[in-house]
Q: What sequence folds into this?
């Protein structure tokens, strides 16, 4: 069963990230909480352990860019780190560390339903 | 069946910890108290506390400020309802132990002064008892009567025994910021590296362990340290210390060769401690081929040891439920056993210690199907 790591852009433009077994449902939850359609700028599909390993890497090694409120570390980035930087960082990690993940979709929201086809990202699933 | 996985090389990047590792050398830096005041001034938690003081109209009560004075030990009483019974062995083997005793390390006596003019000890009874008994034994030159011996007393004037009782609790744990495992390790390392003091074999051994880890770009750091964003760092000091130097050499060299881009996960130490010990008993070598194939397995199936740990603990839960009918406690040996059993399952041919395949027999059947079906 595939697992997903998503990069999200908030309604206010902040970049964030997360993992989910059901990306459509997760996107719907974001819409429900924010009162607007929210875009997953990129969804990566692949092995669950690798999606989780990658998410953990972002949290630890990208720590300087994580938006922290008091001592609460969120899954959002500080406002001056844009989605393009996060996407580049994640793509680089996947390529360099051989994580078995590839791009499933970009600019996704739940109104598009489930994505059938996997776009090749040069990485074998 | 050929082994299913190949290790994919990961480009090595310079690790900043090599140059900023705090244990490599002392900072040689002292700062004024203003530095700490400024740090607090920027802290959200501190600002909130100050706001609470203001809202409650609270100010520093100078009448409650403690005093410090040299007073005679004969002026001191010990309230047995406040302090614990005297632990004679603590006095004999810890405080007065001739290999470690140093008057410069004695604590001041914490007490209250009641309106009858009596000092009541609220802490440090073991220290003052030891000093008095040393005088009684004739071992303090120039002093024959401990009652007349002047000792530093730290006291507040009160008749409130409830305060004394609570103060004892605070001084002995509740409310104290305990020294972390890392800070204790740092003391040992600095004693050897900065003070060049090799008198304590424990300090020397710990420094050697740290040096072995550092050689392979693995670095102990304090919990919640901002350095945790750097590869090679780890916080589980007590597990690290439980390995001998050879085991640390094996564990850290493996990490640095194959997972130099990751933080050190604590399971690394559990795995190599167990693998080294079992292979040694079986008179087997942990060959370079085995090391690389284990790295290939971890990289391909789990991404890193952190995810391996998550999978193996879940499998262990299910395994104990099936075998015993209940969820047994986690056993750290399961890391090494699961890894070696997975290695054989996926076609690994290097010789392994049989004890690692017998223990937790069948454990790998409880790994997720997603993982077990991933053979290339």
A:
């Amino acid at each position: 069963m595939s697992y997903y790591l998503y990069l999200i852009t908030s309604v206010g433009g902040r970049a964030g990230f997360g993992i989910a077994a059901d990306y459509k449902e997760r996107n719907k939850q974001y819409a429900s909480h924010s009162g607007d359609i929210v875009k997953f700028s990129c969804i990566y599909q692949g092995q669950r352990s690798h999606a989780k390993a990658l998410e953990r890497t972002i949290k630890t090694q990208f720590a300087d860019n994580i938006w922290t409120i008091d001592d609460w570390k969120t899954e959002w980035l500080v406002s001056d780190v844009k989605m393009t930087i996060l996407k580049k960082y994640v793509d680089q990690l996947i390529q360099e560390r051989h994580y078995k993940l590839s791009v499933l979709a970009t600019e996704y929201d739940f109104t598009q339903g489930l994505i059938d086809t996997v776009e090749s990202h040069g990485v074998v699933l | 069946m050929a082994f299913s996985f190949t290790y994919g090389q990961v480009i090595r990047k310079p690790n900043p910890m090599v140059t900023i590792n705090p244990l490599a050398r002392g900072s040689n830096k002292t700062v004024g108290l203003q530095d700490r005041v400024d740090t607090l001034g920027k802290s959200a938690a501190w600002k909130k506390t100050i706001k609470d003081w203001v809202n409650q109209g609270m100010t520093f009560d100078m009448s409650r400020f403690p005093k410090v004075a040299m007073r005679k030990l004969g002026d001191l009483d010990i309230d047995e309802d406040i302090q614990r019974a005297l632990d004679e062995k603590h006095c004999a083997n810890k405080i007065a132990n001739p290999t470690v005793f140093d008057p410069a390390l004695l604590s001041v006596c914490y007490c209250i002064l009641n309106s009858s003019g009596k000092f009541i000890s609220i802490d440090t009874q073991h220290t003052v008892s030891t000093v008095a008994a040393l005088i009684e034994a004739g071992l303090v030159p120039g002093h024959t009567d401990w009652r007349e011996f002047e000792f530093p007393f730290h006291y507040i004037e009160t008749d409130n025994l409830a305060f004394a009782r609570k103060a004892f609790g605070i001084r002995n744990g509740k409310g104290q910021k305990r020294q972390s495992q890392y800070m204790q390790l740092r003391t040992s390392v600095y004693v050897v590296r900065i003070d060049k003091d090799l008198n304590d074999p424990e300090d020397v051994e710990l420094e050697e362990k740290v040096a072995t880890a550092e050689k392979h770009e693995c670095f102990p750091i304090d919990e919640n340290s901002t350095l945790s964003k750097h590869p090679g760092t780890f916080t589980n000091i007590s597990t690290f210390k439980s390995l001998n130097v050879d085991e640390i050499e094996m564990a850290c060299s493996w990490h640095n060769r194959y997972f130099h881009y990751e933080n050190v996960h604590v399971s690394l130490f559990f795995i190599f401690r167990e693998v080294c010990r079992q292979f040694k008993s079986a008179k087997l070598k942990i060959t370079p081929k085995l090391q690389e194939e284990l790295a290939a397995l971890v990289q391909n199936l789990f991404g890193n040891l952190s995810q391996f740990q998550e999978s193996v603990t879940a499998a262990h839960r299910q395994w104990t439920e099936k075998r015993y009918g209940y969820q047994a406690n986690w056993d750290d040996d399961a890391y090494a056993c699961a890894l070696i059993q997975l290695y054989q399952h996926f076609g690994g041919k290097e010789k392994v210690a049989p004890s690692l395949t017998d223990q937790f027999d069948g454990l790998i059947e409880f790994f997720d199907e997603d993982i077990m079906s991933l053979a290339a």
